Amino acid sequence: MAIQSNQVAGKGAAKGLAAPPCPVVALGASAGGLEAYEAFFRAWPAGGAAAFVLISHLDPTHVSLLTEIVQRVTALPVVEVTQALPVQPGHVYVIPPNRALTIAQGVLQLTLPKKPRGHRTPIDAFFATLASDLGERAVGIVLSGSGSDGTLGLRAIRAAGGLTLVQEPTTAKYDSMPLSAIAAQCAMQVLSIEAMVPVLQAHLKALPQRLLPPPLPPPSLLPADGIERLLSLLKSMTGHDFRLYKQSTIARRIERRMGRHNLTDLDVYARFLQENPSEANALLREMLINVTSFFRDPEVFVALKQEVLPLLFADKPDDYVFRVWVAGCATGEEAYSIAMVLREWMEESHTHRRTQIYATDLDDGAIATARAGVYPTTIVADVTPERLQRFFFKQDGALRIHKDIREMIVFAVQDVIKDPPFTKLDLLSCRNLLIYLETSMQNRLLTVFHYTLRPGGVLLLSPSESIGKHSHLFAPQNRKSKFYRAIHGIPNIGSAREASPAWAPDLTPRVVDNSVKKDKLLNFSDMTKRLLLQSYAPASVVADVHGNLLFVYGETGRYLRPAPGAASLQLVEMARDGLQLALKTAIRRVADQDQPTLA
User: Fold this and answer.
1) For residue 408, what pLDDT band results from cuts at 50, 70 and 90?
2) Which residues are catalytic?
3) Based on the domain organization, do 274 and 229 belong to the same domain?
4) Burial environment of residue 63 by CB neighbours within 10 A (0 to 12, 13 to 18, 19 or more)
5) What is the pLDDT of residue 221?
6) Same domain for 265 and 237
7) Crossing angle for the helix pair 151-159 and 176-183, to the nearest 10 degrees
8) CA 461 to CA 445: how far, in whole Å?
9) What are the tens digits of pLDDT across the range 254-289?
10) Which DSSP state fits 242?
11) Beta-carbon neighbour count of residue 297 at 10 Å?
12) Backbone angles phi, psi at 209, to 5 degrees
């Protein structure tokens, strides 16, 4: 799971560079795109504060007439890009045939295509650079077209805080591109071309009118206590708590939703949220922006294959079960990438072990996409031809992952902040989640991650994340690729105190005040009951439906013993050899059937 990264939006500013002078609206189309462009500019009034860039699939062997055709329906100047051009408001720029177009510091740049015709994704390529360069001042629009170009680019723009619009498929001459973007949940709004114009005008009007952005994103004008109340309301309506996420990011997400409804008062928006449950889901989706790709940061997967996996599999017995958890997996690309590398390494090294890969995310829609394992054909930009041939097959104009790789992974909806983690892990990948959390929550999660890893297990973070002050828990395995090896030694009470999500046992020593002791003296009735229980009741425990130990009575040493490693109150893990399976079955039966069970 991921939320908007404001670091992307402020790249140029962080280096002290001037920002682009105006927002840029990029329109991507292929088949049927000419009619869509004409419809858009017929509806768009003259002038405006934005520049427009048209990215089309053009025949590289023919001269394009797109510039002349669009000029007939608009009073805006329409220019085919033939050299580096700074974008200017109220201008339309057209990509030429057989060229790739990018933007950097507000200047359009031309390059020769790196891939052969039929494998190019010029819309994705430009959208991605637009997102990186302009952040919240970027707008991506996908119009009529065949294939799936534009889907990944829209995802990048949305993640950077920009606006993403998609043409209503029923109004498009060719609906493949719009349908691909919609299926990937990259569209913030799906509209007819005519309906896009007022939405886009309102969005551009609401953007901060500045030529030089501040070094950091501008502070939110929303009151902190109001945000806290709103997030509490959102939690009560959806069950998801965002109060431990970075407030600057959360505030901008809320402001975006308020802007959609032309609201400026947070209390008014809170009432609107209460009266419209669908808005709660929309706000939740605004928070849960999933940004990922196959083999993101390719050098990481090279290090995983060449260095980390040989280390983790060394001296493991034949019946060993290799366990992986991908936390915040979004739409599944990261988990599948790890599964593919794992399969490749085991086959190449003739090492065959059972594997269990768990991949979780807060977004149930993203998890549904991950389980299906169907992705747009534009992933060819991230996946090598060898892996495409080996692990994917074509299905209805898209690419689907082979069943044997899908079956390696269990996808599940999980809130890493409040839900119990997976344990006894060899590898834990959590990339681009910690950066969205407050420091206190980062520290708690890192301690939780240490608890979940076996001694010597490896944690993988993103390039912008680190273990912070937890060098006593993790040692660098590969600093450049952000692999860290778990150090297990004497339990650290300070670390245990930090790891305090709802599921975690409280290991903090307690000092009971004498006055409290006096107030808790047993009366005669309580004493009688206790003596009778000690004489006639068997040793027993109370556990919840997940097997977490809540209360112990009597001498349970014949049946339970502390599990080795980090302290755990998990009943099945504490059970002595021979009892685990029967105990696990009994707990599941009680939880599912709500009936007494004799194991």
Assistant:
1) very high
2) 30, 57, 149
3) yes
4) exposed
5) 57
6) yes
7) 40
8) 12
9) 887 887 777 888 888 888 988 888 888 888 877 776
10) -
11) 14
12) -90, 90
Same domain assignment for residues 391 and 539:
no
Per-residue CA distances from 50 to 260, 480, 536, 545 (Å):
19, 40, 82, 57
**Residue 410: how many CB atoms within 10 A of its CB?**
13
Q: Which of 94-98, 390-394, 523-527 tops mean pLDDT?
A: 390-394
Q: How far does CA 220 lie from the centroid of its chain?
A: 23
200/206 Cα distance (integer angstroms): 10
**Which DSSP string corresponds to 108-167?**
EEEE--SS-TTS--HHHHHHHHHHHHHGGGEEEEE-S-SS-TTHHHHHHHHHTT-EEEEE
Amino acid at 518: K
Q: Which residues pair with 52 in a beta bridge?
A: 25, 92
Task: Say how many domains are in the chain.
Answer: 4
One-letter amino acid for residue 280 of the chain: A
CA atoms within 13 Å, Cβ hemisphere of 36: 32
494 phi and psi, to 5 degrees?
Answer: -60, -40
CA dihedral 167, 171, 174, 180 (to 10 degrees): 40
Q: Domain span at residue 526?
A: 514-593
What is the identity of the amino acid at 24?
V
**Where do runs of H (alpha helix) occur along 474-562?**
493-498, 514-519, 524-536
Does the pLDDT of residue 152 top 80, yes or no? yes
Q: Counting beta carbons within 10 angstroms of the beta carbon of residue 10, is it exposed (0 to 12), middle (13 to 18) or buried (19 or more)? A: buried
pLDDT, tens digit, for every residue of 207-244? 765 433 333 344 455 777 888 888 888 888 887 778 87
Between the CA atoms of 483, 347, 358 and 597, what dihedral angle is there, to the nearest 10 degrees?
Answer: -130
Together in a domain, 243 and 183: no
